[in-house]
Amino acid sequence: MTEQRHRSERDAADLYGAGESSRRQREAFVAGSVPVAVYGLGKMGLPLAAVFAETTGNVLGADIDPDVVEAINGGDCHVKREPGLPSLVAETVADGALAATTNPREAAGRASVHVVIVPTPITDANEPDLSILDAVVESIGSGLERGDLVLVECTVPPRTTTDRVLPALEAASGLSRGEFGVAFCPERTSSGRALEDIRGAYPKVVGGVDAESTRAATLVYEAINDEGVIAVSDATTAEAVKVFEGLYRDVNIALANELATFTDEFGIDVREAIGVANTQPYCDIHDPGPGVGGHCIPFYPYFVIDPFETDAPLLRTARAVNDAMPSYAVDKLREEFAAERTELAHSTVLLLGLTYRPGVEEIRASPSLSIAEELTAAGADVYGVDPVLESYAAFEDRGLTPIELEALYDGAFDGIVLVTPHEEFESVRWQDVEPADGDLIVLDARDALDRERLPEDHRVYTLGTGGDGSV
Q1: DSSP readout, 249-306?
Q2: Ranges assigned E (strand) in 97-174
Q3: Cα 470 to chain centroid, rounded
Q4: What confidence score (pLDDT) does residue 8 get?
Q5: pLDDT tens, position by position, 287-310
Q6: Domain map of the chain by residue range?
Q7: Among the four given CATH numbers 3.40.50.720, 1.10.730.10, 3.30.420.40, 3.30.70.100, the one describing domain 236-471
Q8: Of 251, 254, 250, 196, which Cα lies nearest the Cα of 227?
Q9: Is 3.40.50.720 the CATH classification of the domain at 3-233?
Q10: Is the pLDDT of residue 330 over 70?
């Protein structure tokens, strides 16, 4: 793809305010006459770029990591465990439909549609960090032309697109509102099913800073999403939709987690009660567990709590409840050790599963991080195994020693905590797992173990279900 080709096509096929019929614009977009740039080629950005490439045949991705760019330009996929993505990347790169650059200004100078999907983390003070977004927006502004369309997919606090992105684009480009389009179109994608989600597991939500931006964004996403588009009133509403989805899950999980802490006092399996309660159509309580991890749910509440003056006591409480669950899990393990007249200190504990959810190589805010740290602080020797994780550096910093799964059968552990139930753990030969001394203490934090497969002399406690001292 040469710059001359991109420039000529930009002049001929703008989507925003061009006066063409939507049908003709859609045909031009699918035919590749509207060059697309995707900024951020991570685990969500690369699948999105690949789907745009298979649809339009004219995509340039930008990422500051030279290894990522080199891999993509070689037809390789650095994002793991995404079904279909490696072959799609290889095919689109081979066809000349997808290329990558480390220079976002190069991408901005070539493209007519700019799609931003970069990380928006929070700081140690729980404040939204939009510095990466700001840098990308400035780069886009340097190459922005009349008729261009900027689509923001990364999650941001409400009003960011209108109050921050739009003015920054105007300042960097010298253009005025109405000469280019801006819309917020939130990513609604889960790891492990990215292509399925992008292509239409759910409708795409779009909201523009003006009606023309919404129309143009709708045209773009209708081309790649089989479930169609839900056009909302404005960009801020679209931002709120994405944030609300995460807030709902965080609050709901907090409810489930708090209910789980009543298991022993109630003397019941709270998980059973939740399951039956959910047969009523107006009840949908989530599953309890050892905490909430990942790059989304634990952080999105702060996109509402921090930037705005309105108090959010429910959101703060939900965060506190979920953040406390790793400590609760460690306390329950300590109680089980005490019931066996042993101490957690000087014991040997193995954590099964360290990523925040099964099958996904992501440890950000994973409950296992806090559990490892607290067990180490309690004086335990902590080991961990995770079949999908390549780097254990963050856990080693917290006193955990990584081992292979086969070491489970060496008889070296006093306790085992199942944190994340990867599929690989289903084949564990529990009858061959011998304790270092006395009975083996097992804490099932996810209610994922089949108790019929566990020997009778293993002492088992399940969060939300309880335990009777043995299976």
Answers
A1: HHHHHHHHHHHHTTHHHHTS-HHHHHHHHTTSTT-------S---SSSTTTTTHHHHT
A2: 98-101, 113-116, 149-152
A3: 37
A4: 39
A5: 999 999 998 999 999 999 989 999
A6: 3-233, 236-471
A7: 3.40.50.720
A8: 196
A9: yes
A10: yes
348-352 β-sheet, strand order = 400-402, 381-385, 348-352, 415-418, 441-444, 459-462
List b or e across 148-181, with b for residues whose CB sees 16 or more CB atoms inside 10 angstroms.
bbbbbbbbbbbebbbebbbebbbebbebeeebbb
Mean of all residue pLDDT scores within the chain: 94
Indicate if the pLDDT at residue 453 is higher than 80. Answer: yes
Distance CA 69, CA 65 (A): 6
The rounded percent of the chain whose pLDDT value lies above 90 is 88
Between CA 4 and CA 65 the distance in angstroms is 26
Residue with tokens 């922005």: 144
Please tell me if the domain spanning 3-233 has the same topology as the one spanning 236-471: yes
Q: Over 70: is that where the pLDDT of 270 sits?
A: yes
Q: What share of the chain is helix, strand, coil (3-state, %, to 5)?
A: 45, 15, 45
| Element holding 221 (H helix, E strand) | helix 211-222
**C-beta separation of 124 from 46 below 8 A:** no
Count of C-beta atoms within a 10 Å radius of residue 11: 11
Q: Tokens for 157, please give them.
A: 């606090």
Q: ∠307-312-317 over CA atoms, to 5°? A: 120
Which residue type, as a one-letter code, is found at position 21? S
Beta strand 400-402 with 459-462 is: unpaired
pTM of the predicted model as reported, rounded to 2 decimal places: 0.93
Residue reference for tokens 């002492």: 459
Task: Give the pLDDT band (50/70/90) at residue 236.
Answer: very high
Active site residues: 242, 296
What's the full length of the chain, in residues?
471
**Residue 63, pLDDT above cutoff 90:** yes
- Distance in angstroms (rounded) separating the CA atoms of residues 185 and 203: 11
- The residue whose two tokens read 């703060």 is 316
435 has which bridge partners? 413
What are the structure tokens assigned to 232, written together? Answer: 């909302």
Q: Give yes or no for a contact between 107 and 37, defined as CB atoms under 8 angstroms apart.
A: yes
What's the CA gap between 405 and 402, in Å, rounded? 10
